[in-house]
């Protein structure tokens, strides 16, 4: 690992039995498990260029860097502090030659990339509608959770701009808003290829939905068996444990 600056209020968190190290804040918004589900939902294909819209500290993007060792990866993040941590994480893990991070607003994606360059675009966007629910007082946490700087139509539009024809868009979203997500994807010319719901327990309602959509295609959609996070005794299920431990990379 390359030695990089760790700033005040930051820490290095190891993932996948030390194969990956992420720089993140010691307090405030930190990673959730959603990016790990997202990265493992991506199929093993010959992806050469991968982008993430709203990459945060980069856990999903760097997981894909491990899964696709020949791919070039691009992440865009609107919060300068988080984009900086992601860029230093790339350096820390010796991935700077393959992973490029920029600080910017993907609603203005044309400023940062030419169109139709990527085989795969992923996103774990905020999904709580602005104005409909009580908002946290933490401004950074609010941006991660609420549709303040972008809404689902902005995410889908940016993905469509970046993707090559027939390219794949993989997203994780609030299961309660699956109809909103599907409507936006279809409006933007995407076809649903795969869908998988994420349940905290086998007997609980789904909290997340993961979708793979294809640009300019209308394939027959497959709803896969659900991902159940916890088994007995609140321990991770075997599948989730394999993700967290890095056994499924």
Structure description:
- With 249 residues, the protein is of the alpha/beta class.
- The chain has one domain: Vaccinia Virus protein VP39 (Rossmann fold).
- The chain is built from seven helices and eleven strands.
- The strands form two sheets. Strands 3, 4, 5, 6, 7, 8, 9, 10 and 11 form a nine-stranded mixed sheet that branches.
- Helix 1 runs parallel beside helix 2.
- The protein is globular.
- The two termini are 19 Å apart.
- The model has no long low-confidence stretch (mean pLDDT 92).
Quick rundown:
The chain is an alpha/beta fold and 249 residues long. It has seven helices and eleven strands.
Please tag this protein with its features.
Rossmann fold; 9-stranded mixed beta sheet; 11 strands; single chain; alpha/beta
